[in-house]
Amino acid sequence: MNLKAYLTLLRPANVITALADILAGMAIVGFVWKDNSPVFLFLSTVCLYGGGVVLNDYFDAVIDAKERPERPIPTGKVSKRSAFFFGSILLGLGITFSFLYQTQSGWIALFIVFGILTYNRFAKHHSVLGPVVMGICRGGNLILGMSLVTNIRSNQLFLSLFPIVYIAAITMISRDEVNGGKKTNLVVAGVLYIIVIFSQLFLSFFLGNLYFNFPFVLLHLGMIFPPLIAAYQNPIGPKIGKAVKFGVLSLIVLNASFASCFGFVFIALLVLCLLPVSLLLSKYFSVT
């Protein structure tokens, strides 16, 4: 077995960002940690995200043979059949781990798996449905973190719209990372980014934690907009790919910002510690 090929399928740098979702969700509901069982939520999200990206390569094997021939399946380092079983096992483990925490978490994980399969099999190449379904998967992951408690309030669930909008923006511009594209998608993505960031500023102001949140917002802005502006000025594949890469990795900063909105500075800093790990892994394993 070619271990590096399987790790490449997993996109480890991206998986780290899923852990940040869980920590942010926990912060939103008050971070009530009674025992070690919430560890199952971390194991669940790693498996769900990993299974999703592995099956993404499985369903895109024909396209990748033309556009990304260096990926593990086109090179023959991992067979399609092996990738299918690997991804399926990971999704199964993700569901199992979430049910081991509590039933509510298990149902949320099942919803995420439904979204993953819908995206990979049907929605990915649809101009509108694709970004929306991918965003819903990410919003579901934030809610999985909120399932730390059994009584998730409706106003807390509403916050899952932020990652939905944010991921929809990233997914929209990622369509052009191979051959380049139009500037329109980049402008729309920038507007969606700003909506999410200003919404977080408003939320932190409303909760009286603006002074905690503002430094994270500045870091976030500094991370996502330089590559986005560079791609707008010259919308070729590599520059768009870089904008997508930093959009994905900056999810960690987005989640740290979420935690700071609710006054959990320690959790926000803990989430932020995931960023250098993800950046390091991105040097060795593809993000997009």
From TrEMBL:
Compartment(s): Membrane
GO cellular component, one term: membrane
InterPro entries given in the database record: Prenyltransferase_related, UbiA_prenyltransferase, UbiA_sf
UniProt membrane topology term: Multi-pass membrane protein
Any GO molecular function: transferase activity, transferring alkyl or aryl (other than methyl) groups
Keywords: Cell membrane, Membrane, Transferase, Transmembrane, Transmembrane helix
Keyword Signal: no
TM ranges: 12-33, 39-61, 82-100, 106-122, 129-150, 156-174, 186-206, 212-232, 244-277
Signal peptide: none
Top-rank lineage group of the source organism: Bacteria
Transmembrane in keyword set: yes
Entries under PANTHER family matching the protein: CHLOROPHYLL SYNTHASE, CHLOROPHYLL SYNTHASE, CHLOROPLASTIC
Protein name according to UniProt: 4-hydroxybenzoate polyprenyltransferase
